[in-house]
């Protein structure tokens, strides 16, 4: 019986890193003093983690005043902030240059996430948040 438990634990341990590497993430490339970053922080950031998109691609912030993390070395940050890059398995799936406002952000993100195999679907996220759903 102990052998089975050890083998099962080993199998799960080996599978977890592989599963994590397949997950998408939304990388927000930002700089201090960016007005559009501040707007995103006010309009989207408070609800993002509670949305289907936030669960499909958790938000990761990267300050462009610092060196890019090693795992993002192949990602071109571009000249505009914020820039949102959906990354999966270490490669860029798509990006949103600038912040288009709350009315367009989720629609653009949903289109990109459909390329990752995760389609959260167009919902009124602000209305869902205000209703507590």
List keywords for this structure.
133 residues; globular; four-stranded mixed sheet; Glutaredoxin; 4 strands; single chain; 19% strand; alpha+beta; Thioredoxin-like_sf
Describe the structure.
With 133 residues, the protein is an alpha+beta fold. The chain has a single domain (24-131), classed as Glutaredoxin. The chain has 6 helices and 4 strands. The protein has a 4-stranded mixed β-sheet, with helices on one face. A hairpin with a 2-residue loop joins strand 3 and strand 4. The longest helix has 21 residues, at 2-22. Keywords: Signal. Residues 1-20 form the signal peptide. This is Thioredoxin.
- Sum up the overall morphology in one term: globular
Which structural class should the secondary elements be placed in? alpha+beta
Question: What is the rounded distance between the termini?
Answer: 44 Å
Spell out the CATH superfamily. Glutaredoxin
CATH class: Alpha Beta
Q: Please work out how many helical segments DSSP would assign.
A: 6
Compute the number of structural domains: 1
User: In total, how many beta strands?
Assistant: 4
Q: Level of helix content? A: 40-55%
Instruction: Give the helices and strands as they follow along the chain.
Output: HEHHHEEEHH
Organism: Bradyrhizobium ottawaense
Keywords: Signal
Protein name: Thioredoxin
Write the layout of secondary structure elements.
Elements: H1 2-22, E1 24-30, H2 35-43, H3 45-48, H4 52-56, E2 59-63, E3 83-88, E4 91-97, H5 102-113, H6 125-131
Parallel strand pairs: 1-2
Antiparallel strand pairs: 1-3, 3-4
Protein name: Thioredoxin
Signal peptide: 1-20
InterPro entries: Thioredoxin-like_sf (IPR036249)
